[in-house]
Amino acid sequence: MSYYTNVKWSLSERPFLAIIRPDSLALSRVNITFVSPAFEVARARENIKHAGLLEPVGIVEWEEHLSPYDTVAKLLASTTSSPATVYLDTTLRFFIASALTNILAPLDIATSVSDPEIVTLRSIKSSAEIDIMRCANMATVEALRAVKSLVKPGATEDQIAAWTFRALEAAGLRKTWVLALVDDNAAYPHGEPGKNKKVGEDGGMTRLEPGMTFSVEPGVYVMGEFGIRLEDIVVVTSDGEGFGAARDFCVGEQEAERGEAGECDVNEKFGTI
């Protein structure tokens, strides 16, 4: 709902719904009707006001002792010619979708998951939407760069999260969410409950020195399907220069068959690659 109307509403057991229909007088416009719990109407009006909607907007209330689905059915029955189809947004919760389907069926009004054309409105971004996303991404990058200079041995995860939150706000971003994880705590996707590790704790930070070598092993693992991991051995140098081009070796042959050095002409074996 928030994508199509810009109205924000937290999930509740009491349905707050938006019904969007084509304007009968102008095909390029729509009519929007919100179905709201009666005791939440004041908050609904305030949220709708801040949404900045340009389209005609209506609000229909449903009382606590009545059914919100009856309210929707009466509204559609009085404004829709049957047979008709109501397309449900793919994010609509099942108990609401099921109740609407059952109550609208006797009115010859079918329900269906949003068709591809409606889904496309959300999945394919306009140039304006992409510009907004790009702006948010650039602001995030600048905020992280600012926080990076503050992170020193002894800094806790909570401190890093607080610095990042303030940096994001300073960059103009609101309603952000920050999770900072250090060392082995980062092995858990959302951290291990109850931990607030420090940078450098338990030997977590080691200064790299020229001559040190270690492996870089990015991997992708899909249980029951496949797994792949690259194991690249790297060396730390004082000037950033490596050892030059890697030497080519044949694949799948025994060392003895490749000669003392194990080298071979890759192009001869496999063609130019």
TrEMBL record:
CDD domains on file: APP_MetAP (cd01066)
Organism: Jimgerdemannia flammicorona
Record Pfam families: Peptidase_M24 (PF00557)
Annotated protein name in UniProt: Peptidase M24 domain-containing protein
Domain Peptidase M24: 132-197, 205-237
InterPro entries reported for this sequence: Creatin/AminoP/Spt16_N (IPR029149), Creatinase/aminopeptidase-like (IPR036005), Pept_M24 (IPR000994), Peptidase_M24B (IPR050659)
